Amino acid sequence: MYDVIIIGAGPGGMTAALYASRADLKVLVIERGAPGGQLMNTADVENYPGFSMITGPDLAMKMYENSTNFGATHTYGNVTKVENEGLVKKVYCEDEVYEAKTVIIASGSDHRKIGVPGEEEYAGRGVSYCAVCDGAFFRDRHLYVIGGGDSAVEEGLYLTQFASKVTIVHRRDTLRAQKVIQDRAFKNEKVDFLWDTVPVEFKGDDKQITSIDFKNVKTGEVTNAEAEGVFVYIGLDPLTEPFKDLGITNEEGWIVTNEHMETNIPGIYAIGDVRDTVLRQIATAVGDGSIAGQEVYKYITELDD
Ligand code: NAP
């Protein structure tokens, strides 16, 4: 029986592991990929205090090492379900069931799909959701990035080191991204913009994407552009499927907590990107993780009293 099982080893989960294990709790972190979560898809981080610039994977590795300093155990597992049996929580993985007094859900979010024809078919064959993973395959190509938020513009800028040109395609005529990031994109000679435009079909030759049909949302006009690579950054969807029976999510699927990171089930907490929150940043996930790590300690101490 663990004191706390943390589901997900992103910045939030790893911080919760650090705080809870430093409070001498028996901690298990379950993760189905490499530790780091969305950090592993992030090229450069320049808004995490203490580092003027660090790559996402480097920061992930530092957080991972730090999270194990006080005895937290990390294990591989794909969580499929959590059951609340009052004082005991059961965490089901594909081939294992773990038990704990408390659970911290830090499962994060996934890149949203556009849902147009050809997207699924050409995923990994010219359609990508990860510039850090796939950017280097597209040297000297003209690339398209879909979206107007921080991720689209930042990752579009990252891609300019490989691409001959990066066209950012946005459904409105003003970007959502932070101004400092926008300014960089407007100054970059390799970046141009296609405003008021959405992709309606990714076309290919069965092996690879070869062109994209774009629609101007104001005029309704559809045009076809040759394309060898497209990166989709249109926001995030919560990874909450395994928790849907617990009744802790809102209509959009994000987990609702109070300021103590508690859900409406005593002993079950949620932190980071998966939480219904106003800002999804590395720093906010870390803040959530520290609160939850401390809160599980208080909850367990009160149980034991
Ligand atoms: P986001 O902020 O939700 O932006 C999504 C973008 O995609 C918006 O511009 C949106 O258009 C567009 N979009 C949404 N659905 C679309 C569709 N079906 N078709 C075409 N376009 C669509 O998502 P994000 O950029 O992935 O960022 C997620 C979170 O991480 C945010 O909180 C962001 O601030 C944070 N983040 C921060 C940093 C940083 O601080 N350096 C870096 C990356 C991410 P509209 O603008 O019209 O809604």
TrEMBL record:
The keyword Oxidoreductase applies. It catalyses: [thioredoxin]-dithiol + NADP(+) = [thioredoxin]-disulfide + NADPH + H(+). GO terms for biological process: removal of superoxide radicals. Residues 2-289 form the FAD/NAD(P)-binding domain. Pfam families: Pyr_redox_2. Its cofactor is FAD. It is an enzyme of class 1 (oxidoreductase). Gene3D superfamilies: FAD/NAD(P)-binding domain. Keywords: Disulfide bond, FAD, Flavoprotein, NADP, Oxidoreductase, Redox-active center. The keyword Methyltransferase does not apply. Binds 1 FAD per subunit. InterPro entries: FAD/NAD-bd_sf, FAD/NAD-binding_dom, Ferredoxin-NADP_redctase_2, Pyr_nucl-diS_OxRdtase_2_AS, Thioredox_Rdtase. Belongs to the class-II pyridine nucleotide-disulfide oxidoreductase family. NCBIfam families: TRX_reduct. This is Thioredoxin reductase. It comes from Vagococcus fluvialis. The lineage of its organism: Bacteria, Bacillati, Bacillota, Bacilli, Lactobacillales.
